[in-house]
Design brief:
By secondary structure, the protein is an alpha/beta fold. The protein has eleven helices and twelve strands. The strands form two sheets. Strands 1-4-3-2-5-10-7-11-9 form a nine-stranded mixed sheet, with helices on both faces.
Length: 326
């Protein structure tokens, strides 16, 4: 049987530390930006030890492993680098979360950041502080896009790039794992695999996980101060990408809702909701286009509604199948 996870690098003296906070960082073929992400983690202001788990998800090329290795072997960063041999973002996340549980028994908070993101210096302090203050089980924060071209300024108002909340405090649920804190008790309670590999190449494994956490009774909060900047490639400014994203988000919302529908009546309710949103979509798109003065942005509600209806039949675009096009 092939081993799906191997720990390749450990920082010296790691076994002598007992960090309460562990940051997990999946990476796939972004070695240059991975180093920028790690530098932002090295600059954190949290006044307690933090361990970092890097999850390399390219078992062949291992560019992220080679880039991160000197920082951990030298002891500049505390933690470890592993290889998640099974390809897919869900496999990478699961490998990191399960390893963090096993390797750091004193861990109370698991944090997540992606390899195309840069954290502000107070990122860990803001997430941990709000979690400690509110006792929330899962805490998220804003991921703000950084566009490579000047015309991206208008797209910052596109719902794809807009955080779901703008005020710190309790919230009903979170939708993405690119900037999040998860308490240990959540990971000890939830069934494994945490992120369902069925979402590997369509995305949404994190949203599905959070939906299951809510049904389990776990609470959510939002830290507006725990900001992360996401380096957004020019590809994501193209109309075709934005259109596919809206369709995908709509389909995923249906698929995740249907997973929680345990009887025919609940499934019928989901179908009726999809039909109602499709009927209202032209009006909502027109209002959004007028408000933002952008036809591209205005099409988003229409794309989501169409995607939701397609999702009723299991039709969803695999946007992550070819990472170079995402």
């Amino acid at each position: 049987m092939t081993k799906t996870v191997t720990i390749e690098v450990r920082s010296p003296g790691l076994e002598d530390t007992a960090p309460r906070v562990v940051v997990t960082l999946p990476t796939f073929r972004r070695p240059e930006h991975l180093l920028k992400t790690l530098e932002s983690l090295a600059a954190q202001t949290l006044a307690e030890p933090v361990a970092i788990v890097v999850m390399e998800n390219d078992a062949e090329r291992r560019e992220g492993l080679r880039a991160a290795e000197p920082l951990f072997r030298s002891g500049r960063l505390r933690g470890l680098v592993l290889v998640a041999h099974d390809r897919g973002n869900c496999f990478a996340y699961n490998a990191g979360w399960e390893t963090a549980l096993a390797e750091f028994p004193a861990m109370e908070h698991l944090l997540v950041i992606d390899d195309d993101e840069i954290a502000v210096p107070d990122w860990t302090r803001s997430l941990v502080g709000l979690a400690d203050a509110t006792k929330a089980d899962i805490v998220g924060g804003p991921v703000l896009p950084t566009f490579p071209l000047e015309r991206g300024a208008r797209l910052k108002r596109h719902p794809v790039f807009t955080p779901p909340y703008d005020t710190s405090g309790p919230v009903p649920i979170l939708y993405g794992s690119g900037n999040v804190l998860i308490r240990r008790r959540v990971l000890e309670t939830m069934a494994r695999p945490y992120l369902d590999p069925a979402f590997n190449f369509i995305g949404g494994g994190d949203a599905d996980f959070f939906a299951r956490c809510r049904r389990q009774g776990f609470s959510f909060a939002w830290s507006q101060e725990a900001m992360i900047a996401e380096t957004t490639p020019a590809r994501r400014m193209e109309f075709s990408w934005l259109q596919q994203r809206g369709l995908r988000e709509g389909a995923l919302s249906t698929i995740i809702e249907r997973r929680g529908a345990k009887n025919p009546a609940a499934r019928a309710k989901t179908l009726l909701k999809s039909g109602a949103l499709l009927a209202l979509a032209p009006l909502r798109s027109a209002r959004l286009a007028l408000r933002t003065r952008s036809l591209v942005i205005g099409l988003y509600p229409m794309n989501v509604a169409i995607g939701r209806f397609l999702g009723e039949f299991g039709l969803v675009h695999e946007q992550y199948r070819r990472p170079e096009q995402n």
